[in-house]
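pinging the channel bc i need a second pair of eyes. not urgent but kinda urgent?? the chain im working w is below, pasted from the shared doc
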Amino acid sequence: MHLLITRPARQRYVELAEDMAAVFRERAAEHDRTAAFPFRNIDELRAAGYLALTVPRELGGLGGTLADMAVAQERLAAGCASTALAVNMHLSMAGQMARAWRTTGDERARKTLTEIVEGRVILMGATAEPGHALVRTTGAKARKVDGGYLVTGDKTFGTGSAVMTHMTSMAEYREHPDGPHVLVFRIPADSPGVRVLEGTWNTSGLRATRSENIELRDVMVPEENVLTSYPVGSLDGSLLQTVWGWAMPTFAAVYLGVAVGAFETCVRDVRSRGWEDRPYVRAEIAACEELIETSRALVERTAGEVMGNGLWNALTIQQGMARAVLTKNVGTNNAVEIVDRVIRIIGTPALRPGSLYERAHRDVRAGTMHPYSNADACDLIAATTLGEETAPVHPPRLDRLAEPAPEAEAAVEAAVEAETKAGDTAVRPAAS
């Protein structure tokens, strides 16, 4: 395993992810070849407690923070990119919900988090649409009815749709008293009018995610299921605290993990070939190390700013968005460069269909298009640096979200150490 220096609790998350990745790695080629969703992997992650990684410990979860999730997801992605990306959607949303529960004590959030621990809930998002990648707008429409809204629209990139029990999506409500607003809502995946369009996902990379299109037709969204709303076309502060703040650093971690997995295999191959003293090989390996550690440092910093409220209090909303997006952009582009360097070291055997290297070569490239894409990221980062406003800002509903208390973190560390001494181990997957 590539060197990761972690505190005791985080080390446990990393080791759990590595244990799972070691098994998933043996299945990844077949899942990629057949473009079959890794149902067995998800079942084993659920049994191991990994799907409750970001659920507070007092509710039965593992108590991981955003930074903990990022390092664990990097390790999981080194085994199977498609599994890690599908799980990323769920863990991110669970973490956002956990923070909302800590801040407001919301009973519905507590209930859902408990159901995640029990293995009864898997979350995913269905927000992407052609022409609406930045979620400031949406083509889906909401019509007011008694008790809520009827929503109709078409969504793309439904990563995790094969196993979701609940989905988060959005629609435009034009008759809002303050002007057209985007409504963000969460509903059961089996709600009448929701249809996953199987067979619409046909790509060269991340084939096993089965990120199918999703159709919404007069789907009833109860008023209480609306999570937030904001004016159409605006940069929303609440989305920075949740969707963007959690997704950008962890997307970077997942794609980086794919590259790290290829790099670690490359290092083993270099040693087996006796190429350690070749100057070109040494230069490429050093360059890869620099790219890996640069990406990790940015992910760690941004995760700390999210959990510490600095991303929106010490910075403006646009500056915070640019910081989060920059982290994702650096991580995903560095991942592409790492894999390219690895292939240059290994040579033509790395391009054989079905090899780990060839799969990584395809998978990491999805990161450059995954919102925020390279083009959109560059526009936002440059405009922010130049002092230009990209869109009107809509402030978050709360200035500060609950931070993990030092005593709570200490309690997690103490509990983990006690469990380790007592020989407590998570459920491990069975090898294929």
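so The longest helix spans residues 237-273. and Residues 316 and 393 are 9 Å apart (CA to CA). — does that match what u expected or am i reading it wrong
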